[in-house]
């Protein structure tokens, strides 16, 4: 698998500054919120979302340094992402994320929900202070999309009639919206033309979809050690992803097992075996590749630079997680 460290080299120093700043920005007056925030920002995430913001910024202001507003946008992006993870873990009743105890398991659900709310509120405040209405609109939409994605996921649990389009829409809300809108926002802060801003939005949208689709494959093929959570956990909670949707087309009995919510003995083992025995995973890999390749095509709008090259290599990195 491609290493993110070498991949993000053009913005490595920027990311160090970002991590230091995040702890200060969230340095809440309350010790529990501060402890929750520090725990979150120390949890060893790859910082891919703010890295994309910083890479887009560097690729679009060539020859100059990026501005403080670009840096603040990257910080806001990571705060929004982290807030969504905290709420995710509460909804999934998860004890571990990246093999580190979650906020809800360390404190409790109430504190975790409030920590997520606090991060969303804090990010909104810093967003308003960027004094750019278009950027405020883009990132506000992301926060709304997260909620919509979670609601859709909750309403569609164990719903075997879910279509691939509905799955992609939910994946956009949950993952791609933040990457797409923050990439476009970084381009807007660099004052690029509308066509280039839209191309970078499309880059982020397709990259985000590829990212989510690969995650959904790994839920069936990855080990607990790699995933930081048990394999097949999405299926158990009734979240039907692309491998399952494709497998159900081939194996009608899979629908029966899912609709009874794995209530009979060996239902889950049988369902997992059916998915492995179908074209579900290989068809989903093709879908991920399609979106990753589309993402790369949208980068033709950028002049050659180390940062533009790194954005292209990110599309390869997303797929390399499968191997």
**Taking strands numbered 1, 2, ... along the chain, how are they ordered across the largest sheet?**
1-2
Number of helices: 17
From the 3D structure, determine the CATH topology: Farnesyl Diphosphate Synthase
User: Radius of gyration from the CA trace?
Assistant: 20 Å
| Oligomeric state | single chain
**Count of individual domains:** 1
Concise structural overview:
With 323 residues, the chain is mainly alpha-helical. The chain contains 17 helices and two strands.
Describe this structure in words.
This protein is mainly α. The protein has one domain (4-320): Orthogonal Bundle (Farnesyl Diphosphate Synthase). The protein has helices at residues 4-7, 12-25, 31-41, 48-60, 68-92, 103-106, 109-128, 133-155, 164-189, 194-221, 224-227, 233-236, 242-250, 252-259, 267-276, 280-297, 306-320, and strands at residues 96-97, 100-101. The chain has a two-stranded antiparallel ribbon with strand order 1-2. A hairpin with a 2-residue loop joins strand 1 (96-97) and strand 2. The longest helix is centred in the middle third of the chain and has 28 residues, at 194-221. The chain is globular. The model has no long low-confidence stretch (mean pLDDT 91).
Can you lay out the helices and strands and say which pair or pack?
Layout: H1 4-7, H2 12-25, H3 31-41, H4 48-60, H5 68-92, E1 96-97, E2 100-101, H6 103-106, H7 109-128, H8 133-155, H9 164-189, H10 194-221, H11 224-227, H12 233-236, H13 242-250, H14 252-259, H15 267-276, H16 280-297, H17 306-320
Antiparallel strand pairs: 1-2
